[in-house]
Write a structure and sequence with these properties.
Length: 218
Amino acid sequence: MKLSAIAGGVVAGGIGAAAWAVIARVTGMEIGWIAWGVGLLVGLGVVIGNKGEGSPAAGAVAAVIAVLAVVAGKYTMVQLVLPDADEIVAQAMYDLDDDEFVVSYLADEVVAEFEASGKPVNWPEDIVVATASAEADYPTDVWAEAVIRWDAMSTDEREGYRAQLKEKIAVNADIFRSSIAAVGFTQTFGLMDVIFFGLAVLTAFRIGRSGSLKESEA
């Protein structure tokens, strides 16, 4: 197998991943089946780089590059869709005028205390602490405890708590964005995403092994 086969696969994978991310940015949607197309492009890139020759080694290389390309595409997609740190800070500052949003930070503290003491935290479906920001996002007992703590604060204490949160958000904006990005990246791997991921890798392997798109479909 020629080194140009690896180069061809990497270039094709980069083009496919970038195109997928841009489409997601423009449409605001992650179109899962495009991952399959990325795998197809990688396979063709390997074959073209290998001067039309197929082999098990070329198939394996294509499969590995397809995995990396799909993961890179998903990562880039999340980064493009998320607002930058300054936008997150601006939105958070605005949201901090809403009592419910502020109480969600108290609820996060309650969650941390529950987990430290070994008490179970029964999250609503598809909700985790990194994305929770409203009453409906939290377990009932967690929110109830957070509300008790909020109600026990004086007006000055509440304003002081808001000020602390604003400072904390401003200082940790990049970390906060990274946390959201990590959660978002994980959530891009639903059942259909995994299926298309597998098809992408299989398609890349079969094209690289056979040296032909037509033969890979047989």
